[in-house]
Amino acid sequence: MSKISNLFKGGSKHKSKGNPSAQEAIHKLRETEEMLTKKQDYLEKKIEQEIAIAKKHGTKNKRAALQALKRKKRLEQQLTQIDGTLSTIEFQREALENSHTNTEVLKNMGYAAKAMKKIHENT
């Protein structure tokens, strides 16, 4: 029975640690941003290579030139998708950072309010 329940729970390999902290989530988002930026750079270089291949073949070998242009178009679509993903990740990271900052400010304000209350009780 436990094998079946493990199957539906995702197995024992991937046990969740619970809810991640804001710092962990921000760190993961930054890592993902870096990875996508590297992929973006790689795709841009590949696009330049495909343009060079298309220019090299020009009118002499139309089939090779057209294939290079089709690959370039596919790479540009991937690049556009990565741009959208990056902007979403940046938005999420900024929202997390802002909420974390707001949480810290509220904690400190609560602490200060307790201190003020204690001071007023003493007077």
Structure notes:
By secondary structure, the protein is mostly helical. It has 3 helices and no strands. The longest helix has about 60 residues, at about 60-120. The protein is rod-shaped.
Element layout with pairings:
Blueprint: H1 2-9, H2 22-57, H3 62-122
Helix pairs in contact: 2-3
For the largest beta-sheet, the strand count, sense and barrel status come to: none
Low-confidence stretches: 10-15
Sheet/helix structural class: mainly alpha
- What does the average pLDDT come to? 86
Question: What Rg is obtained from the alpha carbons, in whole angstroms?
Answer: 26 Å
Subcellular location: Cytoplasm, Cytosol; Late endosome membrane
InterPro entries: Snf7_fam (IPR005024)
Keywords: Coiled coil, Cytoplasm, Endosome, Membrane, Protein transport, Transport
Region (Disordered): 1-23
